[in-house]
């Protein structure tokens, strides 16, 4: 999510290389890479299972029309970019890895999944159980857009038809749009909702949970946009794309046969 499915790709090549190398250091690196890949793989399976549920759940009239139309617009725009502006240069069928994160980055990714997906889903389900329509309508648009983003990222990450810049623009487009949706969520829970006079401790805890959850999502995805996607992920994707293009052009120039100019026969003037 937010570039996670695209940034942290499968580590199969690294695992094979590390396993074949001798020494304790190679074995440890292979185990670490395998553990990280298994963690991210299982995380993607969980996300896809939740996406199927959230898409059905959000199609019940709780998502505004503009938010419903945005995934269609983003998909058309992404396909147009992949065909017209940034066609893929990849020769292999696997999608290239744009950003290889460290262990700390993976912790950051998992925390984002909890803050952005699991807790809002629990908040919406709790709103249904409590009959809190305000909570359901406030958080559902964010969940709908995030589910569409995860689905798009998982589809694109498995295809080589999309170049690194196009893959980097997917989380960028969705995150920018969701920032405004989260701001509306923040306004709803902080300015348009108040505690009843005789509120029980459970109601008070639920009330502040919704408020702090909106702040956490706004802070996390704002930092993700301004500190990771724009300054790090997007430039690295463009650098990889143009480097691949230059390598292909250089190789094509080397493969061109050298044409030796033929000497013209000398013309002798007849006396």
Automatic annotation (TrEMBL):
Signal peptide, first to last residue: none
Domain DUF7733: 44-242
Disordered: annotated span: 1-29
UniProtKB keywords: Membrane, Transmembrane, Transmembrane helix
Keyword Membrane tagged: yes
Highest taxon, organism lineage: Eukaryota
InterPro entries xref list: DUF7733
TM regions (residue ranges): 69-86, 107-129, 206-230
PANTHER family (UniProt xref): OS04G0386700 PROTEIN, OSJNBA0044M19.10 PROTEIN
Protein name as annotated: DUF7733 domain-containing protein
């Amino acid at each position: 999510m937010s570039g996670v499915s695209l940034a942290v790709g499968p580590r199969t090549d690294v695992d094979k290389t590390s396993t074949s190398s001798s020494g304790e250091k190679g074995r440890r690196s292979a185990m670490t890479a395998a553990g990280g890949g298994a963690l991210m793989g299982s995380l993607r399976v969980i996300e896809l299972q939740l996406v199927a549920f959230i898409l059905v759940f959000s199609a019940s009239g709780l998502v505004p029309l503009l938010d419903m139309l945005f995934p269609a617009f983003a998909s058309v725009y992404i396909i147009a970019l992949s065909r017209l502006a940034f066609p893929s240069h990849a020769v292999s069928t696997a999608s290239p890895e744009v950003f290889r994160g460290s262990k700390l980055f993976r912790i950051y990714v998992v925390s984002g999944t909890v803050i952005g997906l699991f807790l809002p889903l629990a908040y919406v389900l709790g709103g249904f159980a409590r009959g809190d329509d305000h909570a359901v309508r406030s958080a559902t648009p964010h969940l709908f857009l995030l589910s569409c983003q995860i689905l798009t990222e998982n589809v694109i990450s498995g295809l080589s038809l999309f170049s690194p810049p196009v893959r980097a623009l997917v989380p960028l487009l969705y995150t920018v749009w969701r920032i405004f949706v989260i701001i509306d969520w923040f306004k709803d829970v902080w300015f348009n909702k108040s505690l009843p006079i005789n509120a029980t401790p459970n109601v008070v805890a639920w009330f502040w949970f919704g408020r702090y959850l909106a702040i956490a999502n706004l802070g996390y995805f704002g930092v993700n946009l301004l500190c990771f996607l724009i300054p790090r992920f997007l430039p690295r994707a463009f650098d990889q794309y143009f480097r691949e293009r230059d390598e292909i052009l250089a190789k094509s120039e080397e493969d061109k046969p050298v044409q030796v100019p033929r000497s013209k026969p000398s013309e002798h003037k007849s006396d």
